[in-house]
Amino acid sequence: MARINSPFELEELRKQILSVRDPNKPCITLCAGSACNASGSREVARSLEEEIQKQGLSSTVDIRQTGCHGYCERGPIIVVGPEKICYFQIKPEDIAEIITETIVNKKVVDRLLYVDPATNEKIVHEHDIPFYKNQERIVFGANSSVDPKSIDDYLAIGGYSALAKALSQMTPDGVLQEVKKANLRGRGGGGFPAGVKWEGSRNAPGDIKYVIVNADEGDPGAYMDRSLLEGNPHAVLEGLAIGAYTVGCSEGYIYVRQEYPLAVENIFTAIRQAEEYGLLGENILGTGFSFKVIVHQGAGAFVCGESTALMTALEGRAGEPRPKYIRSNVVGLWGRPSVLNNVETWANVPLIINKGADWFTSIGTETSKGTKIFSLVGKITNTGLVEVPMGTPIKDIIYTIGGGIPGGKKFKAVQTGGPSGGCLPESLLDLPVGFDELTKAGSMMGSGGMIVMDEDTCMVDVARYFLDFLTDESCGKCVPCREGMRQMLKILTNITQGKGREGDIELLEELAETAIEGALCALGKSSPNPFLSTLKYFRDEYEAHVKEKRCPALSCKELISFYIEPEKCKACMTCARKCPSDAIISGKNLIHIVDQEKCTKCGTCFDVCPPRFRAVTKISGVPVPPPIPEEARTIVREKQK
Amino acid sequence: MSEILFEIDGKQVTAKEGMTLLEAAKTVGIKIPTLCYHEKLEPFGGCRLCIVEVESRGWTKLAVSCVYPVEKNIIVRTRSEKVDRIRRMILQLLLAHAPDAFDLQDLAKEYGADKDRFEKEPSFCVHCGLCVRYCDEVKKKNAIGFVDRGIRKEINFIPDIAAKECWNCKECFPLCPTEALQAAFVLVEALAFPAAEAAKG
Ligand SMILES: Cc1cc2nc3c(=O)[nH]c(=O)nc-3n(C[C@H](O)[C@H](O)[C@H](O)COP(=O)(O)O)c2cc1C
Ligand code: SF4
Ligand code: SF4
Ligand code: SF4
Ligand code: FES
Ligand code: FES
């Protein structure tokens, strides 16, 4: 690779790359993101290469392995260009047929198409599939068209043109004004305006300053930052370099968790390629601006994502938050001004520079501009990564894109904002997603985790679950967090076990206040959120647990019993055979009874009782009816002719 | 260094730039309760007992006085209903671990903290970090440190360093607000069963 010495040469190179690429040449794009790899994408890739060889098509077909497309649940995914015919859940055995049919004979392989569950129709093109159709993928979209290991792919879609523009046509102050005008707010936590943060560092005294990428992403179930780094690392690097130019830094860090090996690998490759082209390093594009990027692999405790803890870890010490009342954009890494932004925040920057603040602010709500990537998981038909404009109603994300709740169950709540976010009830489904909207409702945007819960979820148990996670992940330095959470977790556990006492809710509220007001870092300060938001919207569930020892969702094991309704039991013996603890008193033609003493509440009988009988029920808060008398247990079957 | 004028509990205070609220309060004889603070050591900000109310430009917030730098024209209240309530809760949380610590008992009386509010889990160590930081910052030996995190966090002597250094030093023992019980015990344990310690660590 030859070094590029000016913005002009960059454009020349881009033209040259495009000139040898025929947009009409068939191209098979295979998702090789982490999720798809886990479901067999590597084997598919191998058979793809072999088959192309075998059929002698190496020069007529391109193969491109990309990062995550978002619809991981249906992976491995293949998109055949230029038409963008989309095939899901591909196995190596399918490859020969795809190549013979779609590439050679120009025919669609029907059986591999997506079937719209609503209409039962088969859909051929990616952009017509409801999951994709209703998104606006300005940041994430490029993931499905670039090979993250090829800088030329990124250059082909206009990559590094924003950096070239900033360096050659704009002053650092001009860039700053553009980012401020775009009102780009942080995608990693608090939604702090990036431009304001940059300005603070830019104006802070000192010659040495740093820009840092927060790629720690510790939220359970969230993986948007990982997917961006894996799938489009150059976009993050380009944003970071623009930030560095603006703030006046010559050194940047990427703090990425070790558990993301593919992200680490791809970011290293990307940095090396960018350096070879002279897009990073000394005298970038001949403009005199120099910028070096260093990757730091974190051991990955959730608290290391907190800004002061992350910087402490970067300095090589234990990743514990520091008690500082001076912002780290003024006194940060090694005591120097440091701008820390999230992966997705950085990836938005090149778009803003290229298309302008006015374009960016035309997307979104009054106070939340642009799009946001959400990680949609839980009791939802289409699990995956979803990018929508700010202001999109939650309902659209869950139903139109997410395909609603599977199994005919009822929606109960959606948890947003990661472990210290909050749960929103059905009455708030129309709420538009945005930083302030979510915060006002008692939840938060956080980094974009979205966990959907159905009617079988107990909200007290949900609060307990998240508190359990946070208790484990807290650094343990300060008392309100370490000790307060320990007590909150104990009380919540007791409540879910039917040992709740009068006054528990009030005591939890008092502990919540102590954490909010007294904890050292945002982990502790926000740790009561799961409790407070579930209490706000589902107080009746807390009261049912405490006062009536009843779990309304029929989920807390200690508070439920399994009971066979005598009128419904057909003595089919299915449950008795499957019960792992021999707790079902059974017999041919005898109505079955659950021996409550022996029952371990595993729920097997409930799951296996044939749907046409539905004889097993869960009950909570009321005594189990006494077993029916021995003489009434015999079922007299109608004689079959 | 420029002088900074502000108010604590109704008293006018003149402080030097860079001073913390806690230090400034001391100069005018106002006592703020602390547990993890020590003059010779870097502020740790872990116990949160020294929390106070700070009013600045019409806004009131809570701040931790051992790390909060003095600012012009702020109004500081070291006691208020809210401050007392939070201090009381912090004390109650600590008393579950160290019900017999004298300092905590005295403070409990002053703030009406109920030492039996939470189920006892006497572990003696209240994680103030004084021993750990003293050994690191003053003695520069690092013979004792915290291991693990969250509620599993514990102090631990590093057996090979402790065997060489600790018997003749023990300067951290009297710093311990829970009467050195924990430090002494852990030290003995570490030296008596170094193999077990090593396996743990
Ligand atoms: C306990 C805790 C964990 C966090 N984890 C992350 C994380 O994994 N990734 C991230 O980008 N921000 C995380 N944050 C938020 C960061 O501290 C910080 O606000 C953010 O990286 C700033 O970038 P932004 O303004 O672009 O969002 C976390 C915050 C806390 C308190
Ligand atoms: S709030 Fe929790 S995580 Fe943060 S410093 Fe305190 S103990 Fe550590
Ligand atoms: S819940 Fe499990 S243990 Fe109890 S009766 Fe049903 S299958 Fe048996
Ligand atoms: S042993 Fe004592 S001095 Fe050391 S951290 Fe624990 S309570 Fe503090
Ligand atoms: S990893 Fe393939 S779609 Fe997400
Ligand atoms: S003395 Fe200030 S936090 Fe402990």
Main attributes?
heterodimer; A: 641 residues; alpha/beta; 5-stranded mixed beta sheet; 20 strands; B: 201 residues; alpha+beta; two-stranded antiparallel ribbon; 7 helices; 7 strands; binds flavin mononucleotide; binds iron/sulfur cluster; binds FE2/S2 (inorganic) cluster
Please render the helix and strand layout as text.
The complex is a heterodimer of chains A (641) and B (201).
Chain A: H1 7-19, E1 27-31, H2 34-38, H3 41-54, E2 62-66, E3 78-81, E4 85-87, H4 95-104, E5 114-115, E6 122-123, H5 130-133, H6 151-156, H7 161-169, H8 172-182, H9 194-203, E7 210-215, H10 224-231, H11 233-247, E8 251-257, H12 261-277, E9 281-284, E10 289-298, H13 307-314, E11 338-342, H14 343-355, H15 357-361, E12 371-378, E13 384-389, H16 394-401, E14 411-416, E15 422-425, H17 435-440, E16 449-454, H18 459-473, H19 479-496, H20 504-518, H21 522-526, H22 529-548, E17 560-564, H23 574-578, E18 584-585, E19 593-594, H24 604-608, E20 616-620
Parallel strand pairs in A: 1-2, 7-8, 7-11, 8-10, 12-16
Antiparallel strand pairs in A: 1-3, 3-4, 5-6, 9-10, 12-13, 14-15, 14-16, 17-20, 18-19
Helix pairs in contact in A: 7-11, 7-14, 8-9, 8-11, 10-11, 10-12, 11-14, 18-19, 18-22, 19-20, 20-22
Chain B: E1 3-8, E2 11-16, H1 21-27, E3 51-56, E4 59-64, E5 75-77, H2 81-95, H3 102-111, H4 130-138, E6 144-147, E7 154-157, H5 159-165, H6 181-192, H7 194-200
Parallel strand pairs in B: 1-5
Antiparallel strand pairs in B: 1-2, 3-4, 3-5, 6-7
Helix pairs in contact in B: 2-3
One iron/sulfur cluster binds at residues 562, 579, 581, 583-584, 594, 599-605 of chain A.
